């Protein structure tokens, strides 16, 4: 068993976590975001909430489902690579949060093998 675990660059953590958080807030709690204080961006986000609320909700939940699938895929890859249980858990959590960037690092280990 090996304990390989690597995290993507901080850039991915900021962009993906920020994007998912904003999508969640816009879809479910738009009143929390101070739209009036954000200028043009606030106007744009306001129009998204008013005109495309259902699309925001569907986008958020599709993202959650896609990331859950990617986390299960990460678990399968870890099992193929005989990665230990703690590292597998870390890969699954990270892939659920980040999705693609995490999975690409893990698939890189498959190509090296």
Using brief descriptors, characterize the structure shown.
mainly alpha, 113 residues, elongated, 0% strand
- Classify the helix fraction into a percent range: over 70%
Low-confidence stretches: none
What composes the largest sheet? Answer: none
Query: Kindly, what is the distance between the CA atoms of the first and last residues, rounded to a whole number of angstroms?
Result: 14 Å
List the helices and strands in order. Answer: HHHH
Mean pLDDT reading: 94
What percentage of the residues does DSSP assign to strands (E)? under 5%
3D structure, described in words:
The chain has 113 residues and is mostly helical. Helix 3 crosses helix 4. The protein starts with 9 loop residues before the first helix and ends with a helix.
Topology of this protein?
Layout: H1 10-28, H2 39-80, H3 85-98, H4 100-112
Quickly describe the structure:
With 113 residues, this protein is mainly α. The protein has four helices and no strands.
């Amino acid at each position: 068993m090996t304990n390989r675990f690597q995290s993507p660059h901080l850039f991915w953590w900021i962009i993906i976590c920020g994007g998912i958080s904003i999508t969640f807030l816009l879809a479910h709690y738009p009143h929390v975001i101070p739209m009036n204080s954000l200028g043009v961006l606030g106007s744009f986000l306001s129009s998204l909430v008013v005109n495309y609320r259902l699309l925001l909700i569907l986008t958020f939940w599709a993202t959650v489902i896609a990331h859950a699938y990617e986390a299960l895929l990460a678990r399968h890859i870890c099992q193929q690579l005989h990665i230990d249980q703690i590292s597998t858990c870390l890969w699954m959590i990270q892939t659920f949060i980040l999705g693609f960037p995490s999975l690409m690092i893990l698939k890189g280990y498959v190509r090296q093998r």
